[in-house]
Design brief:
D-Maltodextrin-Binding Protein, domain 2, alpha/beta, 11 helices, 22% strand, Arc Repressor Mutant, subunit A, 3 domains
């Protein structure tokens, strides 16, 4: 197995056909098919189910594709890192960021880091918390800016900001709610838009009041939650700090004080970070220490 074979394999998966991959790679089909056959011979496993028009990955093929993507990403990152060092850019930093992490505290720490690392290039990967945890595990990113709740047994975590969950909606819903702080009892007849990872918590809080929530939409991302609320689908339960990104939404604070979410920076405990990633993490650790 070599990097050229990995490139061939990934290209075939992305194109869906050997003929399409051959055109993209500017080569003929027979040598490409031979390279795929050699991979299967080496592993003693079928990687593809070959159909009349398209090929499909086997279970082994899916596993190998994940590894191939990670290896090729590492190759590309290593090449760019060396280029950056050669041209004086002093490297790059791969960070995953959830869409609801754009709070003042995060950008204050970011700007502080930039003052001492002016030539660092930031590579930002968007995703929800669980997608970024997966990217962290697969080493696609070095650091993740994510939101609780999430499992963090293998992580070192710095808490940046904790904020309350609020109920946000268009006026057609807000005008029917009491003014000031509201409770889940006030939301029992309203369609709700919630994050998937808060579903169990929200249902438990409603159950405590002997109520059943009217959940209209469950999703994984703050932008989706905002968009559906702005479209008038229902009342969104989301972190208060995301509201500056909202358009035409009003909100009510909730009396359920235990429903909170914290923006965190996370890294894997079992991984050695690049110099720039370690400096970024320590910058935020110092920032938090000074604010205490």
């Amino acid at each position: 197995m070599n990097l050229e074979q990995l490139t061939y394999f990934v290209t075939v998966v992305e194109e869906g056909t050997i003929s399409g991959a051959a055109r993209r790679l500017n080569m003929t089909q027979p040598p490409l098919s031979l390279q795929l056959h050699n991979l299967e011979e080496e592993f003693g496993l079928k990687l593809f189910e070959r159909g009349a028009r398209q090929i499909r990955l086997t279970e082994a093929g899916h596993h190998f594709y994940d590894y191939a993507i990670r290896i090729l990403d590492l190759r590309d990152n290593a090449a760019e890192e060396m280029k950056n060092l050669r041209t004086g850019r002093k490297g790059s930093l791969r960070i995953g960021v959830v869409s609801s992490a754009s709070c003042e505290e995060f950008f204050h720490g970011l700007n502080r880091f930039r003052k001492s690392h002016e030539r660092i290039q930031f590579k930002i990967y968007d995703g929800n918390t669980y997608q970024l945890l997966n990217a962290l595990e697969k080493q696609k990113i070095e650091l993740a800016v994510i939101r609780t709740p999430f499992p963090g047994a293998e992580l070192d975590i710095l808490n940046i900001k904790t904020d309350r969950i609020i109920a946000a909606a268009t006026e057609q819903y807000i005008e029917k709610l009491p003014k000031g702080t509201i409770s889940f009892k006030d939301l029992k007849d309203h369609p709700l838009i919630i994050y998937r990872r808060w579903e169990k918590i929200i249902k438990e809080l409603f159950s405590r009041e002997k109520l059943s929530p009217n959940i209209r939409c469950i999703n994984d991302d703050a932008r989706t939650t905002l968009q559906w609320a702005e479209a008038g689908v229902g009342v969104a339960l989301l972190p208060a700090s995301i509201m500056p990104l909202a358009h035409n939404l009003s909100y009510r604070e909730l009396s359920e004080t235990e429903l909170t979410s914290t923006i965190c920076i996370a890294k894997r405990r079992d991984r050695v970070l690049s110099e720039s990633a370690e400096a970024f993490f320590e910058c935020f650790r110092n920032e938090i220490g000074e604010s205490l």
